[in-house]
């Protein structure tokens, strides 16, 4: 989780938004949970509610494969690039075992035939660059230790493809099929027979026979393979080198990304770039069912063990669960990544959500608190054509919110080689009733060239006037748009229209920014910053720092509002004083991103020097920076944003002071969302989140409150009564009740021990037994350390136990005594 | 999952008048019936009762017309001189008229000769009106006097001589039998009460008053004179509420629509303007061939009757769509369609609404199935490409966006190609479509350059297109020259602010050659 630890306790942490489409997701056997690898974690989603129920944390690197334990379906194996295989109890979120393999594990398989070992793809000689990979069988040793080093690694197949989709295990694990480039290999385990089925590489009629994925029929000896040109081949009779057959199906017009047989083998599911899920009837492949327009390209397909649910994971970081009748039942959507963030990071002032480019032609609203996408706003409103070859689609290139969040402006562009630039500016008004943005004004070709920047005027209390928007274009103009009243007797409506067009020496307008109170507009024209009065649109003043062209522009806030900050492309950060109209200071810094905290005077600057990004936080009126951090992350930081905190933090030290009011988020080069945080905040957050989980289990209905009170009374009463009945100081019972059920030995084994413990130690029980008991309890103690104790639950279980234990109080010895008593003749009483 | 998103068809702001409910309503009249009268039509008055005949005063006669009659049903011609202001009583049985000779005559609508004559005015009487109690008659004359007559006994009850110029208009209150209003050429509008000896309210209109009108509620008074229409608040003692100047010649007549929501004014500038009575904004305007002297609306706005100086009576009847409905073939019974639809959900019922079915256009259906050539064919059908060229262009743009425009355009025979080329010739210089269609034209030239010379029809159209584009280029060059000249002029005028060019509101919306002439203007 922690990427780097810096001094002053301020750390760069990943806040979420990691990929959930990296590997094929997995259903639990009861269909209740969907498990997927996400960055360094394994996430457990509920299939019913789409909520993330649990996050399995522990791997130090990317998780590359997950499989259920074939011997226990409540346990999960996961592999990671950190060279470990971990065994989890995913319902409780507990790490049970760690197997250290010392290989970079790229994929994980389990086989029904061989339950003792698991299979993984590893690079040959642990050297990834060689491009030579092997499928190995890893024999997991039986051991009680938490961490076990695994030595028993045997190579099964040599020269395999590194993608996990290129290997599949056949009917009951009898054979394994592997595809690489133009060859299908099948290995039968029992007979140790190895077959190779090559295809010709001839590129005839646009055919491209390169294999992309493979799946095996669960009941028959049939292998399905997907190909680069969209063909699907079904191979039969594969145990015969000469007389094998294959049939070809061709529906996909592009690469088949994944295919899988349904659990019973009655149908085959395939998907690709077209984002259409195709269901083929097995043995009558001409019958097909389609589920089109699923979003991004389909990356993986998985089915549940009972065949009721399928799920597809998509390139736009999304998992869709689909019922067996091909209706969508749930969508799990992560932060959409994988394309350039053209719009920059923004904050929706209403929902406090992070806003950036989402699906093609959409803006996504992403909640930072819950690490969840709130909704998508369709900006372009055109049918998206899925095609692997580059189609010039319309893209949302710029967007901005006004300070109250009532208006949103978006600019979409499409550039073709042959045609002119298609550009549209859309203004969206927030609709309170629908709780969403509705299109208000659409302007065709607002500028003759690309729009380089746009911003709304901040209308604070003292200023009045119509809402104002400024756009700067590379056609050497900046335009002012104002909100006008367009209502007549038939309807009430407002719309935006152009009010003013400004130019400066026919230079390209590259940036624009309003001061905090909206009383001054700064527009940069290549090297020159011009200041305009928004009331009269008069040019007031110009600044420049030759020969550098202005890259970024920002006004200071609060007490520093008299300063204007600018960065130049020749590596200078300049600060001008607006009162004296002179350069206050300048420094040699190659600033890539300049962000101003809206709630304080602080300014964050990400600088780049020889591929290393540093962060400086400073106040424009102070000579020394408040905070510096070298090497924030590898690669360039291009997008950053200050997000105001809901409740200000209380920091005493200077180094953390700048985090008090707002939090700084940034997107790293690999498009991970990072933030700066301190330990104390993290701890509080995690504890509160756990607390929440408990509460969320039971909804707080009036009935629940009533019932809860009633129960509480009852239990109090009962427990008082029973406390006395319980044998005191029974360590074993305590141990047993504190230990989670899954680590306990079987009940028949425990029973005798438990009964023994209840007996009054009259005669010396055999020393042996005691030893065993002690050993067990020690072991149990070890493991109980790791678990999270839920106090309330415990209480209840204890009571449940004690209630049961009240009745069978008679032990064997006591029964024997009873029997003896019965045999005694009591006839002498009668004589009395 | 998300459904198919239909092709975006650009909508362009329409220049000129917007289409509103009012334009639709007031345009929904049949072509006019014109009737030639003997002289300028000075007054039109509708009978307030059922067949809604109307009296038209022109020259020395008063003609009564029926609703659809081309010929007068009846004519009152017993006037020695010009007749004025033939007005129905509110029961529709009596008609009063003034005359140039100063005598007010009363007619029975069924009879021919005058029932009564009221003499007393010394000059022409141009205003007559019945009071709402039916027993009195008000008259205004060029001798500056306003008189109130008792109808049965022909005696003069009152004579007000407060005006100082000709009295040319007047009306009585619907609610109070004693109240009436007169407008005079002395620029004033006076309100009289028969119970008082003199006028109650006097309002300065500012111009000779040609027409006055009381609202049915009696709260508002409208006067017309000169180019102005003024609305007065009677309840505030005659305070000016609003002054309208929408005509550019004298406003001669006023009229209210039957609902009281709209006010109509006719003028010598040959226009009838229709105002909303809530905002007093012009919502529609009607044009006529000659200067308008009189105007009346039939009850329920069934007809607009306008009298003009060229002695033509213009009648426009409302269109009704009943005929169209009759033509429709008889379908299943009404009961069939409402079956189960009138069921009111009871308390506790769970309402499951039927999913709304979206119907895609033909081209969208084809585009959804990736049949691009057929989609292009669908939008090149005559009615689509002629009536809505923006749809054709929109689909072409969508095809280009999908990268299949070339495929869709290729492989066409002579007939289809000529259709395409004629569409291009028609629309390529339209600034709304130029950017898309130039690209289409380029692709067509690329594809079909090899077949040039095989068909005289296509060759001819290619030549036409070439000619058109050359002309357009010349035109644009000229416009740029003009623009350059204007820039230099502006630059010399505004030496200080040379950096600033003020923009037109619709600058971004109307690009292209249409804009430059506007700038010149």
UniProtKB/TrEMBL annotation, chain B:
It comes from Chiloscyllium punctatum. SUPFAM superfamilies: WD40 repeat-like. WD repeats lie at residues 118-159, 244-285. One of its GO terms (biological process) is rRNA processing. It is found in: Nucleus, Nucleolus. Keywords: Nucleus, Repeat, rRNA processing, WD repeat. Residues 342-489 form the U3 small nucleolar RNA-associated protein 15 C-terminal domain. Pfam families: UTP15_C, WD40. One of its GO terms (cellular component) is nucleolus. This is U3 small nucleolar RNA-associated protein 15 homolog. Part of the small subunit (SSU) processome, composed of more than 70 proteins and the RNA chaperone small nucleolar RNA (snoRNA) U3. May be a component of the proposed t-UTP subcomplex of the ribosomal small subunit (SSU) processome. Signal peptide: none annotated. Ribosome biogenesis factor. Involved in nucleolar processing of pre-18S ribosomal RNA. Required for optimal pre-ribosomal RNA transcription by RNA polymerase I. Part of the small subunit (SSU) processome, first precursor of the small eukaryotic ribosomal subunit. During the assembly of the SSU processome in the nucleolus, many ribosome biogenesis factors, an RNA chaperone and ribosomal proteins associate with the nascent pre-rRNA and work in concert to generate RNA folding, modifications, rearrangements and cleavage as well as targeted degradation of pre-ribosomal RNA by the RNA exosome.
């Amino acid at each position: 989780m922690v990427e780097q630890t810096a001094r002053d306790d301020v750390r760069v942490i990943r806040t979420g938004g990691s990929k959930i489409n990296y590997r094929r997701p997995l259903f639990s056997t009861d269909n209740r949970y969907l498990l997927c690898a996400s960055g360094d974690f394994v996430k457990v989603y509920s299939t019913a509610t789409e909520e993330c129920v649990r996050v399995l944390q522990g791997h130090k690197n990317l998780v590359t494969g997950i499989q259920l334990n074939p011997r226990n379906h409540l346990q999960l194996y996961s592999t990671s690039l950190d060279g470990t295989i971990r065994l989890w109890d995913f319902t409780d979120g507990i790490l049970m075992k760690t197997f250290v393999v010392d290989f970079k594990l790229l994929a994980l398989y389990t086989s029904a035939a061989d339950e003792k070992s698991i299979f993984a793809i590893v690079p040959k000689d642990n050297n990834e660059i060689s491009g030579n990979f092997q499928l190995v069988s890893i024999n997991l040793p039986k051991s009680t230790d938490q961490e076990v080093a695994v030595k028993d690694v045997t190579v099964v197949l040599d020269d395999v493809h590194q993608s996990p989709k290129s290997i599949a295990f056949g009917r009951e694990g009898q054979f394994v099929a592997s595809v690489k480039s133009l060859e299908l290999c099948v290995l039968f385990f029992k007979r140790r027979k190895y077959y190779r089925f090559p295809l010709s590489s001839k590129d005839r009629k646009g055919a491209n026979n390169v294999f992309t994925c493979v799946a095996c029929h669960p009941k028959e000896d049939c292998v399905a393979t997907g190909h680069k040109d969209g063909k699907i081949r079904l191979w039969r009779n594969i145990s015969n080198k000469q007389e094998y057959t294959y049939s070809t199906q061709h529906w996909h017009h592009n690469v088949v990304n994944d295919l899988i047989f349904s659990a019973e083998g009655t149908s085959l599911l395939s998907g690709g770039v077209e984002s259409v899920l195709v269901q083929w009837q097995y043995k009558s492949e001409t019958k097909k069912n389609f589920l089109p327009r699923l979003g991004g390209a389909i990356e993986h397909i998985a089915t549940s063990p009972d065949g009721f649910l399928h799920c597809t994971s998509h390139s736009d970081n999304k998992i869709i669960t689909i019922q067996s009748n091909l209706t969508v039942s749930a969508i799990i959507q992560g932060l959409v990544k994988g394309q350039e963030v053209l719009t920059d990071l923004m904050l929706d002032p209403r929902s406090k959500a992070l806003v950036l480019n989402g699906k093609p032609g959409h803006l996504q609203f992403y909640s930072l608190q819950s690490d969840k996408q709130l909704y998508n706003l369709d900006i372009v409103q055109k049918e998206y054509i899925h095609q692997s070859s580059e189609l010039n689609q319309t893209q949302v290139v710029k967007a901005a919110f006004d300070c109250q969040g009532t208006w949103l402006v978006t600019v979409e562009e499409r550039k073709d080689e042959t045609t002119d630039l298609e550009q549209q500016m859309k203004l969206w008004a927030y609709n309170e009733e629908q709780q969403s943005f509705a299109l208000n004004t659409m302007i065709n070709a607002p500028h003759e060239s690309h729009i380089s920047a746009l911003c709304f005027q901040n209308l604070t209390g003292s200023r009045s006037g119509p809402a104002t928007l400024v756009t700067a274009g590379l056609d050497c103009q900046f335009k002012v748009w104002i909100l006008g009243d367009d209502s007549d007797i038939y309807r009430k409506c407002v719309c935006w229209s152009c009010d003013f067009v400004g130019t400066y020496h026919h230079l390209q307008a590259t940036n624009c920014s309003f001061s905090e109170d909206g009383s001054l507009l700064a527009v940069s024209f290549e090297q020159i910053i011009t200041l305009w009065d928004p009331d009269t649109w008069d040019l007031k003043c110009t600044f420049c720092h030759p020969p550098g062209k202005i890259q970024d522009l920002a006004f200071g806030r609060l007490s520093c509002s008299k300063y204007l900050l600018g960065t130049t492309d020749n590596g200078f950060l300049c600060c001008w004083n607006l009162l004296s109209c002179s350069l206050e200071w300048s420094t040699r810094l190659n600033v890539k991103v300049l962000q101003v905290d809206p709630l304080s005077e602080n300014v964050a600057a990400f600088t780049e020097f020889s591929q290393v990004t540093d962060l400086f936080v400073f106040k424009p009126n102070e000579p020394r920076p408040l905070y510096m951090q070298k090497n924030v992350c590898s690669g360039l930081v291009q997008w950053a944003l200050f997000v105001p905190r809901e409740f200000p933090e209380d920091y005493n030290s200077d180094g953390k002071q700048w985090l008090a009011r707002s939090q700084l988020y940034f997107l790293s080069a690999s498009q991970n969302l990072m933030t700066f945080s301190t330990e104390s905040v993290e701890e509080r957050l995690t504890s509160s989140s756990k607390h929440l989980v408990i509460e969320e289990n039971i909804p707080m209905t009036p009935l629940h409150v009533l019932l809860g009170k009633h129960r509480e009374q009852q239990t109090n009463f009962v427990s008082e009564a029973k406390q006395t009945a319980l044998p005191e100081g029974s360590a074993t019972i305590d141990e047993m009740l504190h230990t989670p059920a899954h680590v306990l030995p079987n009940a028949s084994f425990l029973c005798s021990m438990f009964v023994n413990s209840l007996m009054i130690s009259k005669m010396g029980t055999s020393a042996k037994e005691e030893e065993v008991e002690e050993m067990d309890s020690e072991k149990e103690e070890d493991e109980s350390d790791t678990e999270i104790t839920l106090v309330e639950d415990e209480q209840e279980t204890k009571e449940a136990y004690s209630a049961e234990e009240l009745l069978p109080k008679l032990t064997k010895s006591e029964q024997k005594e009873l029997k003896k008593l019965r045999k005694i003749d009591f006839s002498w009483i009668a004589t009395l | 999952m998300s459904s198919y998103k239909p092709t975006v068809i650009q909508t362009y702001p329409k220049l000129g008048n917007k289409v509103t409910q009012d334009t639709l309503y007031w345009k929904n009249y049949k072509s006019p019936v014109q009737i030639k009268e003997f002289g300028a039509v000075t007054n039109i008055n509708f009978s307030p009762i059922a067949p809604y005949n109307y009296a038209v005063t022109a020259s020395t006669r008063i003609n009564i017309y029926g609703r659809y009659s081309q010929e007068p049903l009846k004519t009152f011609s017993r006037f020695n001189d010009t007749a004025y202001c033939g007005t129905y009583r509110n029961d529709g049985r009596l008609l009063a008229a003034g005359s140039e000779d100063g005598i007010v005559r009363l007619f029975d609508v069924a009879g021919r000769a005058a029932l009564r004559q009221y003499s007393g005015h010394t000059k022409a009487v141009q205003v007559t009106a019945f009071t709402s109690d039916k027993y009195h008659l008000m008259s205004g004359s060029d001798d500056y006097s306003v008189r109130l007559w008792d109808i049965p006994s022909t005696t003069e009850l009152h004579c007000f001589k407060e005006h100082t110029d000709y009295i040319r208009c007047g009306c009585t209150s619907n609610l109070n039998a004693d109240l009436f209003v007169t407008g005079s050429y002395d620029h004033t509008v006076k309100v009289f009460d028969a119970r008082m000896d003199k006028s109650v309210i006097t309002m300065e209109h500012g111009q000779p008053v040609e027409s006055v009108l009381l609202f049915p509620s009696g709260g508002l008074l409208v006067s017309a004179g000169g180019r102005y229409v003024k609305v007065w608040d009677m309840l505030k003692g005659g305070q000016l509420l609003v002054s309208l100047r929408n005509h550019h010649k004298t406003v001669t007549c006023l009229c209210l629509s039957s609902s009281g929501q709209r006010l109509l004014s006719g003028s010598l500038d040959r226009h009838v303007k229709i105002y909303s009575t809530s905002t007093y904004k012009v919502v529609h305007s009607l044009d006529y061939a000659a200067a308008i002297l009189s105007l009346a609306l039939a009850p329920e706005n069934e007809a607009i009757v306008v009298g003009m100086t060229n002695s033509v009576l213009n009648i426009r009847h409302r269109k009704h769509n009943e005929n169209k409905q009759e033509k429709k073939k008889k379908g299943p019974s009404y009961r069939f369609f409402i079956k189960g639809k009138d069921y009111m959900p009871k308390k506790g019922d769970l309402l499951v609404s039927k999913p709304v079915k979206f119907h895609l256009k033909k081209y969208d259906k084809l585009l959804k199935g990736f049949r691009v050539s057929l989609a292009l064919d669908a939008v090149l059908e005559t009615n689509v490409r002629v009536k809505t060229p923006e749809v054709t262009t929109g689909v072409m743009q969508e095809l280009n966006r999908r990268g299949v425009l070339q495929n869709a355009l290729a492989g066409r025979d002579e007939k289809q190609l000529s259709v395409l080329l004629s569409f291009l010739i028609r629309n390529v210089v339209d600034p709304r479509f130029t950017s898309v269609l130039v690209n289409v034209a380029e692709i067509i030239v690329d594809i079909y350059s090899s077949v040039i010379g095989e068909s005289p029809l296509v060759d001819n159209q290619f030549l036409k297109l070439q000619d058109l584009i050359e002309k357009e280029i010349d035109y644009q060059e000229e416009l740029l020259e003009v623009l350059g000249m204007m820039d230099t002029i502006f630059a010399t005028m505004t030496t200080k602010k040379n950096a600033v060019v003020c923009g037109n509101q619709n600058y971004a919306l109307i690009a292209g050659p249409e804009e430059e002439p506007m700038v010149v203007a």
